[in-house]
Every structure is written in C-alpha cells, then in structure tokens.
Design a protein that fits this description.
The chain is mainly alpha-helical. It has helices at 2-23, 25-65, 72-83, 90-100, 107-120, 125-139, 145-156, 163-176, 180-192, 198-211. The longest helix has 41 residues, at 25-65.
Length: 214
C-alpha cells in the first residue's frame, strides 16, 4: 500500500512539473534568453575593455618611446587623447609624462586634466588620492593657503597612505612662507600619525630639530 502511494505521489509530482513547463514555456524561454543575453553582453564588454587596454598600452608606449622635442605638440595631443579615455592605468601615466617632461605650460588646462582624472575616471581609492596629492604638489607654488588645503582635504581627512605626504607638503608650504608655528603643527601631526611614511617622518623630525626648535 505504501509503495502504491509513493508511486502515485511520484507520478503526480512529475505531472505537475511537466505541466508547469508546458504552461510556462514562453516565460521560461524568455527568462533563459535574457540570462543568456546578459552573460554574453558581460563577456563581450569585458573582452572589449581588455582589447582597449592593450591598445592604450601600445599607444602610450609608442608615444613615450618615440617622443622628441620636434614632435612635442603631436605628443601632447596624443597623450591628452589617452587621458580623456579615463583609463585607470594609462590616463594617469599620460598626465604624469606630460608634467614630468614639461610638455604643457598652460596650468589651467593641466588642472582640467587633473580634474578629469579625479572626477571622471574609475580609480582605486589610493590611486585617486595620489593624483589629488600630485595636483596639490603641481600647484603648491601658486595657490593660497586655503586653496591648497581645499585640494588636500580629501587626503588629510582620511587614513590614506598619502596622508603624511599631504601633511608634509603643507608643512613645507608654511615653512617657505615663514609661518613657523603652522609649519610646526603639520610636522608634529606627521610624527604622531601611525601610518606615516618612514622617510617623511624622519625629515619632519629633522626639520623640527634643526629649524623649528624653540
């Protein structure tokens, strides 16, 4: 008797499953089609991004290796194209190459490129902080106290590995302005910061002992 009941229940369950697939055939086909489309689209986008990355790498290497003074403007234009691609790796490298080789004199345009990287490029947190720091460093000789602090605030108000670099930049900024007390405050912040860069911490201590001791 129990075996008969088990057989009946099994047949009933199988019939229900069969009927479910028959009654929902169109919905299931549409559902599976959507899932398949999403998977294919994801893989296609991923592959396209990888191809674009390879192209950018090749383009960046070709431009920088073949750079000559008589091709300066061509190099600038091509590097700006790479920056505007908003690639997390080669866009920052392109901007660094522009700055390190003094290829652009227009500070307004350079700062726009910095802002494009910071605001429009999908960067890892610490890479973004590094670019913010480099922007502050690039402008440090031309900015007011408030403007410099404004740029560095995202780093100063975080636990970033670049925090000690930002504090040191501000300390040296105030020291160059002969504002010893403000400089001293920032140097001291570096000394008590847990994750301060070792070399920066050492230089801060030297500055305090040599130039700002009472």
């Amino acid at each position: 008797m129990d075996e008969e009941i088990t057989i009946i229940d099994s047949k009933t369950r199988n019939e229900k499953i069969h009927n479910f697939f028959i009654n929902n055939k169109k919905k299931l086909i549409v559902g599976f089609s959507i899932i398949l489309f999403v998977i294919i689209s994801y893989l296609s986008i991923k592959e396209a991004k990888e191809r674009n990355k390879i192209k950018l790498a090749s383009k960046f290497n070709l431009i920088t290796i073949n750079y000559k003074k008589d091709t300066k403007q061509f190099t600038v234009n091509k590097l700006i194209e790479i920056i505007n691609q908003n690639d997390a790796t080669y866009s920052p490298l392109a901007l660094y190459f522009l700055i390190d080789n003094n290829l652009m004199e227009n500070r307004v345009k350079i700062n726009k490129l910095f802002d494009n990287l910071i605001n429009e490029t999908n960067l890892e947190k610490e890479i973004k902080n590094l670019i913010i720091y480099k922007k502050a460093l690039f402008n440090s000789n031309y900015l007011t106290e408030n403007d410099l602090i404004k740029i560095l605030n995202p780093i100063i108000n975080s636990e970033s590995i670049w925090k000690s670099h930002a504090l040191y930049l501000l300390a040296e900024y105030f020291y160059s302005k002969e504002e010893g007390q403000k400089a001293k405050e920032f140097f001291n912040q570096i000394l008590i910061l847990q994750n301060s860069n070792r070399d920066i911490k050492l230089e801060s201590q030297k500055r305090l002992n040599r130039d700002l001791s009472e």
